[in-house]
Design a protein that fits this description.
heterodimer, A: alpha+beta, 2 domains, globular, disordered N terminus, B: mainly beta, Porin, 42% strand
């Protein structure tokens, strides 16, 4: 009995050692993911989770990015994840700009208004908000309808429509867009300069919550 | 939640606001089925032993383990349609016919809610149900039940039950005498019993005490006659057992809801017997990472103005012989970064066609969308027509034709716009100017990784497993001609070699026959003779040739060791225009049974099998397949498969096979049937991958109605890139 157990244990160890290898790529391999999951749980048990690297100073980060990258840049903070990153523009198509992080997560903007996100797991496919955008950028008050489309777990793209009221915010120079659909209430805040939004706090969606976006270089 | 690994947590976590999004779609005033709050002991929404008219949210998949002194029931439930619930159950039933004293009995249930509750009037939801309607039927019962929401916390159900639900409290037998249960091979619908015999009323109430505690009370007609040794009301003597009798007809339960996905229930039956059960339920529509966590696509690069690049716009570049190879190289490299292989490319001044193999995204539309964007970045401005052809194992399947100006104009808009602008057609099998990407073929890939092989539901040992290492290799000599195989080395496990019936391995070997005592060839019933090999085994080693002779016809020839138990030749043709919902196919195999141990050895049994098949895709994600032909044991018959498939790649299906093999020859179960489940790993992890988990659960593995399990059947190989799946998946084009 004892021998059998030992043999079993050795077998398991050998299997773990070989893990998965080959030239087909371990992309999405089950064993690879189990290994990652195990490592993460092990790390958590050792209390490594508590050791969070000190958050880099946003202004230092911005200064560094401005020095290295000659193109348009934005500073983006995801509130729910507590992250702040500089995104650089990687493409521009008829006024629509795609900004990306180093690890290729993207925000898609039009005149400083958020149009979509890519690579965040609960992405916004597209926000249709030309009515809101026109009011906000011209500094007028009014009503507009906004349609936000999301990828849902069933593999489809589904819309969420919101009825919005646009008007001046509490602080001078700010504009607030308040949107509603049933129990859902969100508020986007904007500062407009030269016909485009330069600083804002905008709602991405139910899971990602709000993002703050600041234009570093137009 | 600490107890879970990240993986399980990811698999089980769900994103609540999807309900909010899905709610947007619902047409106002459309009635929805009444959704259950607690799961009963049979694995469906219900009280404890009595049913309710409730459903689960559409497409929910769940599993329940219910355990009491009186019964052990393991159920898998699937909400197949918004108003149709199906259950496959695997229960331990006492049986004096077996030397081990019990059997593991499989049973199926159906429930259909045919009337919706009207929240503004007295009208309740009403459902009709069949419980354990196939086979030996120890739980067999039929019912008609109504459920009404009295207030947000309280629901009352009342109904009439037949069979097991009318073991006491009968108020008559309106449709005549209920015949005795089938005591032979089982497995067939016991139609002659449905709604026959005594009928008894039942009532239940479910009260939501707090956010996650539910209290249930029911007045049941099931008094566990067999389990408590009541010879008069137990339909079959072998099922008799001697547990304590219930004191009364009242059952009480308490359910605790843990998060969104789990439920724990404890209950008291008749003031006497205790039971507990645990349920886990998942909704395929609620993925933890609905959009996936794959990196952002490279954005469209719009073309420069005409006067900024007159040469590019004029198409004069196409006269330069170095242009095409340079563009193909650049595009191929960019696609490789996206998990796509640029197999070949045709390029002229205003049209470009690329043939891609998608190795990364479950939804082909996502691969096509990313390819289209990369083409706008790589091609000179005069190229206006973009053709993206999907290739599967070297066979070009469908072509999506796009105008480059549409791709530029519609980038990141609602997906329906690009789907309307795109044209999907069957790919031309041999266009003249196609250039293969140099260096792709011959292509060799290999992998070495651990494997776990399990077999469930064996009555003697419900869980058998084997763990080891598997070396796989694939050598594609030219597109579509593929030599592939794998070698396994077992490390440990309890899947040992075993002979069929009560024979020992030695006795079975000494018999040296491939037929059972009824003269039926043993094609699957001795499959465990192949297990437990301590040395290396070769589960599969084949040379396959895939081709597309005409625009709408695909072909496959596979030779070699096709599967663990059979080797030989398999040939197949399939007619399937890319835009057609109907596909027709034919397959013929000449196979010989493999030796139990000797890798390249064969036994004496040899057979020719073949099928003609029809496939039809109903556009709401439901597809059917009908195969008619000759099976491995030489029996002739047909298989009907019905599958529900979601745009995210989830597949849940069921099949039945009926052949001319007599039920006596077939043995327990009477005919072959089962369910299949296939879940894309990306759904649970968010990381893009074509990998899937799942498998077949068949009610019994017998010799009748089984087919050779050859890899790469054409329909499954090309379905992801035909119109049905692409149209379902258009939403991912701009992901």
């Amino acid at each position: 009995m004892n021998r059998k157990i030992t043999r079993g244990a050795i077998g398991a160890a050998l299997l773990a050692m070989l893990a998965a290898c080959g030239n087909t790529g371990s992309e999405g391999s089950i064993s690879g993911m189990f290994a990652t999951a195990l490592k993460q749980s092990a790390a958590r048990m050792r209390g490594e989770e508590a050791k969070v690297a000190p958050a880099p100073d946003p202004s230092a980060m911005a200064a560094e990015a401005l020095r290295v990258n000659p193109g348009p840049l934005i500073l983006v903070g995801l509130e729910r994840m507590g992250t702040t990153q500089v995104l650089a523009m990687t493409g521009q198509n008829a006024g629509q700009r795609t900004y990306m992080t180093k690890n290729e997560q993207a925000l898609i903007m039009r005149d400083g208004m958020l149009v979509g996100t890519r690579g965040l797991g609960n992405d916004l496919s597209v926000a249709e908000m030309s009515g809101s955008s026109a009011l906000i950028r011209s500094g007028r008050s009014g009503q507009a309808r906004r349609v936000m489309r999301y990828w849902t777990g069933d593999g489809l793209e589904r819309p969420l429509s919101l009825d919005c009221t646009i008007g001046p915010g509490a602080k001078a120079g700010t504009i607030v867009e308040s949107c509603q659909n049933g129990p859902l209430n969100i508020q986007n805040n904007y500062i407009v300069q030269g016909g485009r939004v330069t600083v804002s706090r905008q709602w991405i969606g139910p899971n990602l919550g709000y993002v703050t976006i600041q234009e570093l270089r137009p | 939640m600490r107890a879970h690994s990240t993986l399980t947590r990811r698999l089980l976590a769900s994103a609540l606001p999807v309900a909010l999004l899905i709610g947007q779609d619902a047409a106002p005033g459309r009635a929805d089925p009444l959704i259950g709050r607690t799961i009963g002991a049979y694995g469906l929404p219900g009280a404890i032993d009595t049913p309710t008219a409730e459903m689960l949210p559409d497409s929910t998949l769940g599993a329940t383990v219910a355990y009491s002194n009186m019964a052990r029931r393991n159920s898998i439930v699937f909400q197949a349609l918004p108003r149709l619930t199906v259950v496959l159950r695997y229960s331990r039933v006492e049986s004096t016919e077996e030397r081990r004293g019990y059997i593991w009995d499989r049973s199926f249930d159906l429930r259909y809610q045919f009337l919706d509750e009207d929240p503004n009037s007295w009208r309740p939801a009403v459902a009709i149900g069949l419980q354990d309607f196939l086979g030996t039927g120890i739980f067999s019962a039929e019912y008609l039940v109504a459920t009404k929401t009295i207030n947000p916390r309280l629901r009352i159900s009342a109904g009439l039950g037949w069979g097991r639900l009318a073991q006491q409290g009968s108020i008559g037998n309106p449709f005549g005498h209920r015949p005795d249960p089938d005591d032979e091979e089982g497995g067939k619908p016991n139609v002659d019993q449905w709604f026959r015999g005594d009928v008894a009323p039942f009532v239940s109430a479910s009260w939501q005490a707090t956010d996650n505690i539910y209290l249930t009370a029911e007045y049941s007609g099931d008094r566990y006659a067999c389990e408590t040794g009541d010879t008069e009301d137990c339909p079959r003597t072998p099922w008799l057992s001697d547990e304590d009798e219930l004191k009364n007809r009242l059952n009480l339960g308490l359910t605790y809801q843990i998060g969104q996905n789990y439920q724990l229930t404890g209950y008291v039956l008749g003031g006497k017997q205790l039971g507990v059960q645990f349920t886990v339920a998942m909704d395929p529509r609620q993925s933890p990472f609905p959009s996936g966590t794959e990196k952002a696509p490279a954005p469209v690069r719009p073309r420069v103005a005409r006067n900024a690049d007159p040469e590019g716009w004029s198409g004069a570049w196409s006269a330069d012989p170095t242009a095409h190879p340079a563009i193909q190289k650049a595009l191929g490299d960019a696609l490789a970064d996206e998990g796509q292989v640029l197999e070949s490319m045709a390029l002229d001044a205003n049209r470009a066609e690329v043939r891609i193999r998608n190795n990364r995204y479950i939804q082909q539309a996502e691969a096509i969308g990313r390819t289209a964007r990369l083409m706008t970045r790589a091609l000179p401005p005069s190229v206006e027509t973009l053709v993206i052809t999907s290739s599967q194992d070297g066979m070009p399947t469908s072509s999506v034709t796009l105008r480059r100006s549409d791709v530029e104009r519609l980038e990141n808009t609602e997906a329906s716009q690009i789907s309307e602008a795109a044209v999907l057609s069957s790919a031309d099998p041999r266009p003249g100017n196609l250039v293969y990407t140099p260096g792709l073929f011959p292509r060799f890939s290999w992998s070495l990784r651990p494997y776990v092989s399990t077999s469930l539901f064996d009555p003697d040992e419900p869980f058998r497993y084997e763990v080891g290492a598997q070396l796989s290799g694939e050598y594609e000599l030219m597109p579509g001609l593929i030599l592939s195989g794998s070698v396994r080395q077992r490390a440990f496990g309890n899947k040992d070699q075993d002979a069929p019936g009560s024979l020992t391995v030695g006795e079975y070997k000494a018999l040296d026959t491939d037929y059972n005592s009824n003269g039926v060839p043993r094609v699957r019933s001795d499959s465990r003779m192949y297990s437990g090999d301590k040395g290396p085994t070769v589960p599969r080693l084949t040379l396959a040739w895939y081709a597309k002779p005409t625009e709408d016809i695909y072909s496959r020839v596979t030779v070699g060791l096709l599967e663990r138990a059979f080797g030989g030749v398999s040939g197949e043709v399939l007619w399937w225009p890319s835009n057609s919902r109907l596909a027709l196919g034919a397959e013929i195999n000449r196979v010989k049974k493999r030796d139990f141990r000797d890798v390249f050895g064969f036994r004496d049994y040899e057979v020719t099998t073949g099928h003609v098949s029809a496939y039809y895709d109903f556009q709401n994600g439901i597809s059917t397949q009908l195969d008619i032909g000759k099976y491995l044991a030489g029996d002739k018959g047909a298989t009907l498969t019905v599958t529900r498939e979601f745009a995210n790649g989830w597949r849940v299906g069921a099949w039945v096979t009926k052949t001319d093999m007599s039920t006596e020859d077939f043995g327990e179960g009477s005919f072959d049937k089962g369910v299949t489940l296939s879940i894309p790993l990306a759904w649970g992890t968010g990381q893009p991958s074509l990998r899937r988990v799942g498998g077949n659960i068949r009610s019994l593995s017998r010799d009748g109605g089984t087919r050779v399990s050859v890899r790469g059947r054409l329909y499954d190989t090309i379905r992801d890139s035909q119109s049905g799946q692409i149209n379902q998946g258009w939403g991912r084009f701009w992901r």
